User: What shape does this take?
Amino acid sequence: MSPFDTIAPLDSRKSAYCRGHCGCVRVSNTLRAGFLRDEAEEDLRPSGPDLPKDSSSSPFRRRDFLFFWAAGAIDGLGTCASSLFLPLILLGAGYSAGIAGLVATVGLVSGLVVSPMAGVFADRWPRKPMMYVSALVAAGAMGSVFVTVASGHVLLLHVLVAAVVEQVAGATYGAAASGTIRRLVPPEEYTRAIGYLQARDQAVQIVGPTLGGVLYQLARWVPLLADAASFLLVAALSKAIRTDLTPGREGPAASFTRDLAEGLRFVWAQPFLRFLVVWTAGINALLGTLYFHAVFASHAQGAGPSSIGLILTLAGVGGLVGALAAPRLVRRVPAARIVTGASWAMVPTAAGLAFASRTWTYGLLLSGVSLIVPSVVVVLQTRAVLVTPDRLLARMGTVLGTAGQGVAVLAPLAAGVLVTAYGGRAVALGCAGAFACLALYATVRAGLVVREVP
Assistant: This one.
C-alpha cells in the first residue's frame, strides 16, 4: 500500500484514511467569516445531538471520539500485522507467488465493489451496530485462518473466502463509520479531529509493518491471532460509543437501486464533490505510481530491502509530521492556497525523482510530499463534512473512497509496466507533467474550496 492512500474519505480500513465522516450542519457565522456564501448549505440543519462548543478543547477530551480514534488505531495495527504477511503464509504452504497475489487482489477488489452498496445500507440502518457487527464478522474470518495456520492445514479456498469476508466486513465498517465526526465533535473541532485521525493512520503505517514483522518472527500464525483480537477490541470500542449514530432520513427508504443512484447523483451534482472525486483519483494514481516507481528504480540500482524500506519510513514520518501540523496550518493559511500550493509543489518533486540516484534522495523527496498532503486532506474533508446531508453521508463517503482507492490499486501494476517499458526517468517526468495538469485544474477550480475550514 502506498503511503499516499490517505487521500481518501475518512476511516476506511487499512489506513486508507477516513471513509467519510461527513454530515449535515448549518454553516455557522464563525464558519462563514471571510468566506463566500453557499445557498445549498444555508438550508442544512443539524441532524445529530447538540455538542458543547469549546474552541479551546481537544477532541480527545470527548469520550466517544477517543474510543473511535482508538478503534481505528487498533484496527490498523492488526490489519498491518496480518495483511502484509498473509502472502508469505501462502508461499510457505507451497502455493505460488501468483496465487498469493491473486488472493490479495481478489480481497481488495471485493472490498471496493461492496463499498458503495454498504453505503446505501449505512444510510438506512443504525450505524453503530453495523460497525461492531462488521468487526465481529472480520474477527471470525481472521480467527478461522489463524486456527488453520496454527494447526498446519492451510487451504487456499478457505484463505480466499476469509480474505473476501474480511474485506467486505471492513468496507461495511468503513461505510457505517461515515458521519461519526459530525456526531462526535462540533464543527469548530473538525480540523483538529480530522488531523488527529490522519496522524493516527500515518503512525500506523510506520509502526504496523514493523510490528507485523516482529509477530511473524514469533510464529507465522501470531499476526493472524493479533488481527482477530484487534477486531474484537474494535467491536468492543464501537459498541461502547454512547452517541447516537443513527442516520437521519426524510420519509421511508426508497428502493436499493434508487438509493444507490441518489448517492452517485448527489456527488456528481455538487461542484465541490465532483472536483474532489477528480482531484483525489488523479492524485492517488500519480502518487501511487510515483511511489512504486521509486521502489522499482531503487531496486534496479542495486538497493537492498533495508534501503528500500527507508523510502517507506521517511515518507511515513513526513506524513505523520504533516498530519500533526495540518490543523494549525489550515487555520492560518487560506484553504484554496493550501490545495493549489500543494498541487503545484508535487510537480518539482516528481521531476526531482527523475534525476535521483540514491535511496535516501527518493525517501526525502517523497517525505516532502507526505508532509504537505495532510493539510490538503483536512481542507477537503472538512469541506465535505459541510456540504453533505446526514442521510447521504455513507453513500457520499463510499463513492469518494471507491474512486480514490480504486485507482490506487492499479498503481503498482502501472508503475511496473511503465518503468519496464520506458525507464524510471521517463515515468517520473511523465508524472511531473500529469501533476502540472492536475495542479492547473485545482487552480482553475480553487473557488470551490474557499469555505471549508472552521
About this structure: Residues 361 and 403 are 31 Å apart (CA to CA).
